[in-house]
Description:
Strands 1-2-3 form a three-stranded antiparallel β-sheet, with no helix packed on it. The two termini are 29 Å apart. It has helices at 2-7, 102-108, and strands spanning 17-24, 28-35, 44-45. It contains two helices and three strands, in the order H-E-E-E-H. The protein binds flavin-adenine dinucleotide.
Amino acid sequence: MQNRAFDNPKIEFVFNKTVERIYGHEKIVGVRPHGTLDGSETNLDLEGRFIAIRIDPRTHLVHGKLDFNPEGTTAVQGRSSRTSVPGVFAAGDVPNPTYRQAGTAAGSGTL
Ligand SMILES: Cc1cc2nc3c(=O)[nH]c(=O)nc-3n(C[C@H](O)[C@H](O)[C@H](O)COP(=O)(O)OP(=O)(O)OC[C@H]3O[C@@H](n4cnc5c(N)ncnc54)[C@H](O)[C@@H]3O)c2cc1C
């Protein structure tokens, strides 16, 4: 996915910046990125903004208690939601290495 984005000429990557301000009244017109390495302050004109966060399921609660897969998901038996501890089940994003979506999360709760 990252390589596809790099190859897309319509996408410009801006690294080492945090968004300090969002400008606009009823409609966004720009943001003010702050350079985390050089302290630079610039304005970037925009017509829209999407906020994306990492997909990082909160599994720390069960670290050391359940078995995990190498990619960091809770290990379940086959296609079930049974974990390595009898009576403890994993459903939703935490056992899913691939499709972390609302539909698959809800569906896994039925297994
Ligand atoms: C920005 C974003 C956009 C997305 N857009 C889509 C989309 O368009 N379509 C789609 O299908 N999916 C989308 N998803 C994915 C979807 O939201 C998840 O796959 C789904 O919510 C996973 O469900 P879940 O029940 O496993 O986890 P969650 O919905 O994250 O529920 C986990 C719950 O556990 C709670 N919790 C965590 N730790 C504790 C604790 N220690 N004690 C008590 N409670 C705790 C959390 O507060 C949370 O309410 C998006 C996800 C993100 C982040």
